[in-house]
Amino acid sequence: MQGSIDYDEQGSGPTILLVPGSCSTGAAWRPVIAALGDRFRTVTTSLPGCGGTIENRSSGHCSIADVADVLEAVIRRAGARVHLVGHSFGGLAALAAARRAHLPVASLTVLEAPAAEALRTAGEPEHYRAFRDMTDAYFAAFAAGDQEAVAGMIDFYGGPGTFAAWPQKVRGYAIATTAANILDWACAYGFALSPSSLVGVKLPTLIAWGEASHPAAQRANQVLASYLAGASTATISGATHFMIATHAKEVAAIIADHVGRAG
Prior knowledge:
Blueprint (H helix, E strand, L loop, with lengths): L7 E3 L4 E5 L10 H7 L4 E4 L19 H15 L3 E6 L1 H12 L4 E7 L4 H7 L2 H19 L6 H9 L3 H4 L2 H9 L1 H12 L15 E6 L4 H13 L4 E5 L6 H4 L1 H15 L1
Parallel strand pairs: 2-3, 2-4, 4-5, 5-6, 6-7
Antiparallel strand pairs: 1-3
Helix pairs in contact: 1-12, 2-3, 4-5, 4-10, 5-6, 5-10
């Protein structure tokens, strides 16, 4: 793996690698890290094209494996057995890295991954079409020059008006990283999700979603959990997709409990 990759760590104890979603950086985890207290060593990074992590993909070559490579580089640098936690597309990337089983991972926590392909495999066309309709419109708007095309994706996840309510700096960063987010979606749609494709994931696994999240996102993660033998599930009460910011204490509690159980 060549190029720069964001890396930050703090604290001591069992190592938790916190992977953010698209249009974000490791800083997004600060509220959760604060809620975890001093019980863990927390490591954060950023996905390709965000923060200081180099974009290692192109529209002609885009695979979830490229993103898993980044996480494996972070795990090697951490130099310890890690509890892998990913939010949104970071959750899908964490799942891809866990599936490869190249490095020591103690447990996996996925917080509302964009697991649309699980819906397609499960034969749930209505929910799958909800994802596809959103991304089709989003990609077309961006290609047509709409600087705020990403707002449609954000509002799909958080509800109407979510993007407009964000601080200007946060909106600006989402706009600036839209191209990377579109590559993330291409990777997500190219990641086959089925019981047979995930049979190699033999870690203690927790899949969680927001109680107020889009029904398609909730259902995608329910199906994903059913594809992973022995996976447990959790619903974050009152939360939408952006739970690590709005419900940091609740998210930290389920992470700490899962990590404690996994050992």
